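Hey, resending since the last one bounced:
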Amino acid sequence: MFRSGTRKELALPGVTASQPSTFEPTAAQAVAPCKPAGLTGFARVSSFIALNTETVTTFARGPSDQIRADAERLSHIVLEMQRCFVLHLCKELAPGNVSFPQFFLLTYLDRKEVLTMSAIAQKMGHTTAAASGLVDRLENLGYVMRSVARDDRRKVMVCITPKGSALVRRIREEMVGNLMKVLNHLTPDEQKAWLQIYSKIYDYCQSK
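The structure tokens again:
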């Protein structure tokens, strides 16, 4: 039993009365924050918060990170839409023995009165020889007609035939019908926004 008003100190092995107990922090230690080794500035503060809360803090993404995430999502959507479109188009073109590149050439010719072979090669991204082979197959199917220029017989001119135009119109009507089904699932404001966005993307692609 201790007397009232008196204080009894316990002696610890290796610790004298004049030494501070190792179980109590010094004044400097009590004030100084924990500094994770090797970290400075923002990383030090972040690590200090994570250590004290025992959780890993996830910081907000920057604008560039969000744009990349949106672009990755859009790439998936675009590829899936292209896959569906190409599969459907190939199915429609199969009875006429027309390939995907051939149909795109027909759609381009359908908007022009006549094109030179060099212009076709440039539009399709082919060599003149490859473009000539493409035109040969369409000509054999009766979808295009080849002739020579009046002012220069060395210049080969290509135009679409009524049969080729009829094929383009049929496929285009199929596309319009499918797009109308999609538009019916959108509100009027969404329909307008979709057209505006696609028009802007189209203008960007045409400028490249």
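Residues 24-59 form one domain.

Sorry for the duplicate.
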